[in-house]
Protein 1
Amino acid sequence: MVAQHAAGRVLITRPMTAAVEARARAAFNVEIRARTAPMSRAEMVASLQDFDVVVATLGDAYSAEIFAEVPAPRCRLLANFGVGYNHINAEAARAAGIEVTNTPGAVTDATADIALTLMLMSARRAGEGERLVRSGNWAGWHPTQMLGLHLSGKRLGVIGLGRIGDAIARRAHFGFGMEIAYVARSDKETTYPAQRAQSLVALAAEVDILVVAVPGGAETRHLINAQVLDAMQPHAHLVNIARGEVVDEAALIAALQAGRIAGAGLDVYEFEPDVPEALRAMEQVTLLPHLGTATEDVRSHMGHMALDNVAACLEGRKLPNPV
Ligand SMILES: NC(=O)c1ccc[n+]([C@@H]2O[C@H](COP(=O)([O-])OP(=O)(O)OC[C@H]3O[C@@H](n4cnc5c(N)ncnc54)[C@H](O)[C@@H]3O)[C@@H](O)[C@H]2O)c1
Ligand SMILES: O=C(O)[C@H](O)CO
């Protein structure tokens, strides 16, 4: 028997997995928004006025302006569904008396798996090959057909050796025998040999695959710019599973069109869900629709973590995952 929480109205801004919705309905006085699109400005303002806790997610742009519109919010917690919370101005939330939590760890393995999927698809031209077979134009195997980049023994550069970056590096090293290099402010302790590069440009210049796994937000916006892309080797591939804004998309398109890099594997986009026609037109680009955490198990795990934070807030306990 799940206890009913008398106090507190909860809004969940998207439909969730059945398991998460069932727990939320049993445990809280909850409203679950039926729409899958991000919250409008008016909806976000109303959410801060009418609910004690809001389970928000990617695309719900709780900017400083939204908080400024509600001087005395009823809301005490924005429990973000997802580890990345660059869509929420956490400083402005705190100034308004609203805590922010996220779901670290629940997303790590699944997102690392998608990074490896993109590394393999990009290096081995899997998307292009699949489109060839589907087109009916495949003329058959021959020794020089669609040659790609062999990953085994190659060098992987990780930008952002945190939870996901480390899970990617582990998979790449122990699964594919790849050498690992990374950039960070200080040396990291790892379960595999890993070399810290002097700078991002130096890292870009020395690797076969460069994978982006830093958080989004103002500090990392356009971290991967024309200078970094120009430093990469012509046979190298860029993989981004972090946030679209970390990569200067116009510079990436220019580098790909000029053949300055061999390919890119992207799960996220600068102006998501808009994906430039130029990217969609290029065979050497693998495009996924932000699939990092898209499995039933993982989305339920994320939802339960968010609900654990909701429960803690409503019961006056310490929040498990403050950002
Ligand atoms: N594609 C997806 O579906 C998906 C899924 C989950 C997470 N993500 C994104 O991945 C990000 C990382 O998640 P995580 O759990 O690994 O976070 P994390 O905090 O564990 O790791 C991020 C790492 O990046 C490092 N970092 C920050 N700025 C840096 C910089 N300028 N240069 C080098 N390193 C820098 C941090 O020190 C940290 O080690 C999330 O913030 C989110 O935006 C995407
Ligand atoms: O940050 C995350 O957890 C994913 O991108 C989904 O929000």
Protein 2
Amino acid sequence: MAEPRRVGVIGGNRIPFARQFGPYARASNQDMLTAALDGLVARYDLAGQVLGEVVAGAVIKHSRDFNLTRETVLGTALDPRTPAYDIQQACGTGLEAAILVANKIALGQIEWGIAGGVDTASDAPLVLNEKFRQLLLTFNRAKSTSQRLALLPRLRPGFLVPEIPRNAEPRTGMSMGEHAALTAAAWEISRSDQDELAAASHQRLAAAYDRGFLDDLVTPYLGLSRDQNLRPGSTVEKLATLKPVFGDTMTAGNSTPLTDGASAVLLASEEKAAALGLPVLAYFSHCETAAVDFVHGDEGLLMAPAYAVPRMLARAGLTLQDFDFYEVHEAFASQVLATLKAWEDPAFCKEKLGLDTPLGAIDRSKLNVNGSSLAAGHPFAATGGRIVATAAKLLAERGSGRALISICAAGGLGVTAILESAAR
Ligand SMILES: CC(=O)CC(=O)SCCNC(=O)CCNC(=O)[C@H](O)C(C)(C)COP(=O)(O)OP(=O)(O)OC[C@H]1O[C@@H](n2cnc3c(N)ncnc32)[C@H](O)[C@@H]1OP(=O)(O)O
């Protein structure tokens, strides 16, 4: 096998994220992913190009979208001979898609590719009531009209009540927010610390829009040019007035909202980028996934990044402090704070991570410097692409350094990565 090659992040594109039942209420996953991909195609002049692969996914998907990414690619300006397929790793989907594309480029299997993600909280795939579904399957197998008619008396009015997808863990029946509230209580994360993080997220994202940072990362769509959830005027005082919705400390202000949106990121080998004259913003250097046993163990559902990051640091020969940017997905403010607290905690680091000294504290001024999911919103599978593009551009602007990306995901999963500056 060939020596791994360096993988460049060329750039990203996303549509502004919209609140559930907002302006994208009638847009399907395919519509939104098409918009994100076509924006990227336009930005990097990719029309008619055959890419190595497009990898994307959605957490909430209709059964008709059996290969959503391929169907979407067929409707974009990319050459239809571009292979494309879906993956799903809950909120880690977008980052995992980027890791898959990056690994194939690193191994010389492809030269360039797009990673993406999309999710709708508005266009929910309602499923037939299980009893009705079984009856319809039996009906379908019936060989004669009389057999079909004989089945009709089995139909009950209750069969018409659909099964609506819940934002809950199948194994526990608890929502993400309920799980996160347990973690917030276990780690004694205060309400005021959560509100402070949420206010900073809004203020920083608003400032990033104002200074034009997102001009080449976000393409207007269906009347939105900025993320609809963004409230530049969010203050700790205002957030402190909101009622808790999960546990005692978590509110609509320090939790991500249910969101619609899509994102895409273009990755290429150094050689391909040079041949096309495309500047590289940053290089993908390391990645790691982890999972926690939140069903039988005492772990918080969203704590897997607390394990993935130290393993990745050990392989990379880095400490937690060796970064200029920390992009930690804000599923809930409490989740970010619990993860940071775990890395500072001698007992957690010793007992769970096997480390004699804790990973330690990070410089908080480097955390989510342009805001994150609390302000932008969180269309599950699209968040990874938003974060990779943001981190790469931050490194390009700085002209040096390194960014840590950490994304917690449903199912007790965590996906993490390191980007390095492309400047020499
Ligand atoms: C999925 C994975 O794999 C991993 C993960 O990321 S886990 C995270 C997954 N995401 C989730 O679970 C989403 C969780 N969020 C939710 O379920 C819902 O958004 C929620 C229950 C928290 C809130 O829902 P809601 O009540 O409809 O919110 P919303 O109406 O917008 O806000 C409630 C109030 O707070 C106010 N508010 C919200 N944010 C505010 C802010 N930043 N500043 C001031 N006020 C704010 C609103 O104005 C509203 O006030 P009124 O009642 O006076 O109108």
Protein 3
Amino acid sequence: MAKKRKNEASDGIRIGDKILSLSGYLTKKPKIDGTSQASNEGISTSQEGLSTQNEGLSSSTEGLSRSKEDKRSKPVGNPKYFEARQALPLWTRQDDIRQKLHQNDVLVLVGETGSGKSTQVPQFLIQEDWCQRKKVKVKASDNGTTQEIAVGGMIAVTQPRRVAATTLAHRVAKEANIPGHGKKDGERHGPLSDGLVGYSVRFDHRVPKGTRIKYVTEGMLLQELLRDPQLRQYSAIIVDEIHERSVDVDLLSGFLKQILAGDKAGRGGIPLKVVIMSATANVGSIKKFFSDSESEGLYGSAPPATNPKTSVDFLQIEGRQFPVEITHTPKPVPDIQEALLSTLFKIHKQESLFDKHGRKDILAFLTGQEEIESAQRLIEEHAETLPPNVPKIAVLPLFGQLSMEAQHKAFQPTKEKNTRKIVLATNIAETSVTVPGVRFVVDCGKAKVKQYRPRLGMESLLAKPISKSSAIQRAGRAGREGPGKCFRLYTEETYESLEKTDLPEILRTDVLNAVLTMKARGIDDVLAFPLMDPPEFESVEKALLHLHILGALADDGSITSIGRKMVMFPVPPPYARVLIAAATPKYDCLLEVIDIISCITAGDDIFLQIQSEETKEEAEEFRKELWRREGDLITYLTTIQLYSAENADRVRWCKDRKLNVRNMKQAMNIRKQLRGLCVKQKMMEQPPADPQPFYPITPERAAVILKCFLKGFALKTAILAPDNSYVTAHGKHVVAVHPASVLHGQKKEAIMFLEHVYTQKNYAKKVSAIEAQWIVEAVDRSS
Ligand SMILES: Nc1ncnc2c1ncn2[C@@H]1O[C@H](COP(=O)(O)OP(=O)(O)OP(=O)(O)O)[C@@H](O)[C@H]1O
């Protein structure tokens, strides 16, 4: 059966009257063996946060005979932080770290949460001789002439999330910069103006002149690799929190492995050092991945490595700075929200606001934006009823779709006196971050996980139990500034039954972006690219075909100029394709397309779900002016255009229409960034500033915009069948229009949908009415 499906796919896929061939891509035979899943063997999870500091005891300290005194080098930087830094478990092991990196290309460093990995390791390494900038001679690849260039001097520390990269940069800037040595504006802009430390995340870069340590998101470093495949400005790359195993970190590891195994001619012979860090990492598989001399590709071997042996060492650092006491519920909780509220208020009433270590705030882990916003409402309502002798509560949300400014608010101390901060976060706050003041963690034990089904081209986003590794990371957030407590809203048996680690993202999501990134980095044979856990062959096959349909790949599988442009946009490839089409004279609707994409990528739906019938009627009266019969996309467009034309009270305007105020603000923020990027890419002139008068979009213009969207979403279309169901044009699956869509319950000739989710049913979301003929036009690569 599987074989038959593969043959059909290899022959081609029919879209309208076209059959697209895959033969250009599929030169390698799939190698199906048992090695594709992450093995749990050799996983090193540091002991659950129980013990206090355990002086320098590692499984791997061979060859280090220096005295204890020598190992405690004097700190460099701001004396205000010396004591705190010297108290970290990592402090006494800094010479071991230096020595191991002096002798090896790669160091895998495992240490408990809060032991000082993210903040201290880069500060230990910048003083090393191999970490200094050097002038070298290299041959130019285009004309063979010899040039003198500078190589090294900087360390990049990658983080899975923007908030971790920026908060760590701020912290390390404070620790590493010597007060008074900065520029004059250092006071105004904080320690990041003083040099030494910087950060680079999507839409936000602060890299002062003289930066030596740069905190970056994994995605940003991948972008840098597109411009500089040898990462020449860096002496070392520190890959932090590898256990999260995002697609980006897997790609990054593959590229780093290639640089390590290469001949270093592009770096003038100067090696690149790599440190892999985590509290809960599968050390065995990481060591094997980097040290294997034949680069194991997805389904075959890559060309032999020039540098046949990458030396990899391992160091485990035990001990944590402060203990964390963990409590499980005696019985499973029937209602998580109720359990959350009662735990939060119990802590609030029983625990003091301060102790000798400082504030005693709370961090609670919930599944997503919707759950956070509803919990916030309930906590605030209940807090109003507290007697006057109980301290007040300030609730701060923290999730990925919030603007960076809103995210950073959760890291500030509360301004009001006699008030406890309660931060409600998704797993965005799970690793790497220190939320100042937090001493209590409440863990609901679940997270929303994306799961992709390549056969159906469908994604589901469901709340699932977290892994043990996540539970350990979450508890670790409580013991960073003093002894902490973690309340798990699940039983000990449930904890014991959790998987050790999460399935790597590459095995459960669409690999479209990953394949495009490889192609853009010059990886012609993506099947031979080294990955720790290769995804299913079928997923790669689908991604290649999809990229071909998007015009990102030519018939021979090479990347096109459109593909190269697509990787420049920080949005998924289909959206990038729509942006590029919108800038062409044929469609000429870039401003409208940016408006729509901004609404869609701003978080959960901008329209709040209304439960009560009475409020529904009221909101629907207001929403009538927004609804468009062309469907959700033109409705989004009308909404954001009316919102940006609103001059008086935008918050009131949103409340009347039951729109999510935060998401509207975030949409405006993304709109500004995307406009800026398109101006930079010379795709449009600087647009006029808001507010602009509102003119409703004509049906003809709406048709142009929807046709433009089909350039990215031709595969996400369905035709109305004689039995009144919608059947997808690609794959022939039945889909239902989601109840949240303005087209729910309506019959149209054909529909385009931007999302396809499986909950109780196979649902199409973000739906628009289209004509069947438009689908065929959209896949015509000549137009
Ligand atoms: N932004 C911050 N504000 C206050 N203290 C901080 C901050 N960042 C780090 N610290 C302090 O430095 C300590 C070490 O933090 P660091 O992030 O280096 O640990 P880590 O070993 O990388 O932890 P994890 O594995 O959880 O990422 C923390 O426990 C905390 O005491």
